[in-house]
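Report of the visiting student (M.T.), summer placement. My assignment was to run the structure pipeline on a short list of targets and document each run. The first record concerns ARM repeat superfamily protein.
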Amino acid sequence: MNSSVLISSHICRNEEVAAGAINAIQKLASFPEGMGIIFPSTKGGDTDLGVIASQCSSLGRVRVLALVVKLFSVSMSAASAIHSLNLLSLLEAEIRSADDTLATLSVFELLYELAEVEHGSEFLSKSSLFQLLSSIISDDSKDSFLRSRAMMISGRLLSKEITHSFIDEPCAKTVISSIDERLQSLDPSNRDEFETALESLGQIGLSIRGAKLLLSGTSPAARHVIYAAFDRQGPEKHGRQLAALHALGNISGETRSENFIILDGEAEENLLRLLYETASRSSKLTPSGLFLSVLQQDSEIRIAGYRMISGLVSRPQCLMEICSRQEIINIVTDPSTETTKIGMEARYNCCKRIHKSLTQSSGVSADPTFAGIAAKLQEAVGMGPYLHRKRGGEAQPIVMTADRF
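After the run finished, the C-alpha cells were exported:
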C-alpha cells in the first residue's frame, strides 16, 4: 500500500480504518526511507498534506491536522520536515478561519497535544502561534471556552525553560499581558475562565524566566494570583483560591526550591511587596496570618497551601514569617493533620522544605528563639509522612483512585 492510499484511508469517515491508517503512517515515518515517501520533495502531489487539507471537508481537515501532529511527535527529523513544509501553518489557518466552532476546538486540542511534544517548543516558537493565541485571549467576541483553551496552550508552552530560549521576551510578555488584561476585564460570574487564567499564569511560573516576567514591572501579572490566593470570601471563590494557591506555589518555586533557586531582584522584591500589601489589607495583617488561614481551611486548600509555603520558604523573610507562627509549625509537623496519601505527602514535603531552609539560613538558625522549632521540625522529618507515634505505628492513608496517578 502506498502513502497516498494510507492518507486517503486516514481521512475517510470510517473510524477504525482511519485509526489503522494513522498507525501505519507513523510507523512509516520512523524510518528515513519512509520520511521521503510521506514528505516527497515535489510539492503538489497526491501526498501533499497541504493540498489534501485544502480539498477536504471540515472533518477531513481535522484528521489531516491530527496526522501532522502525530508525525511531528515521531522524531526531530519529522518535526523539522513538517516545519520546513510550513504544515504547522495549517493549524493556525484553521483557527483563523473560525468557520466551524467544533473544528476550531478540535484544533485547539491538537495544539495542546503539540505543546507537550519534547521538541515542539523550538518549532512552535518560530511560528506566529503566540501572536495568534494572544489575539484570541484578548478578543471579547470569542467564546469563553476558546479563550480558555488559548490560555492553557500558552501556559503549557511557556512553562518550559527551552521555549524562552527560542522566543523573544516581548513575545512572551505579550501573552502574559493578554492574560493579565483578561483577568482585569472578566466578569466575576465567569468563574471557569477566571480559574483557567490563574492556572495558566501558574503554568508560566513553572519556568524561571516565566516567573520573572510574571513578577516584573510596576503592576506585575502575578498580583492576580496573590490576591486570589488569600481571598476566601464566599464558597463561590473556593475554586479560584485553589487555582491561585497552586499557581503561587509554581511561581514561588515549589518545583525549583530543592536547589533554592531565587529569582532576580525585581521579581523577589515584587513578590514580597505583594504578599505584605495583601496581608495589610486583610484582617490577618501579616503574611504569617495569611499562611495560617490557608492551612486552617479544608484539605484541598491545605494541600495547595503546603505547596505555596514550600516555594516561599526559601526566602528569609517568608521563613521568618512561617517560623514565627507556632500554629503553622504545629500543623506541618503533625502527621495526624492529613488523612489522604496526597495530603500526608504534601504536608511532609512542606515540613522538609521548612527544615532545610531553616538549617541553611544562618541568620534564622542562629537565633535561639527558633532552636525549639528546628528540633521539632527535625523530629517530624525523621518520622516520615505517615508515622504517628500516638497510634504506635503507621497511619493508614485513605488512597483515592486519582491519588495513584
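Residues 145 and 218 are 30 Å apart (CA to CA). Residues 1-5 have pLDDT under 50 and may be disordered. I thank the supervising group for their guidance throughout the placement.
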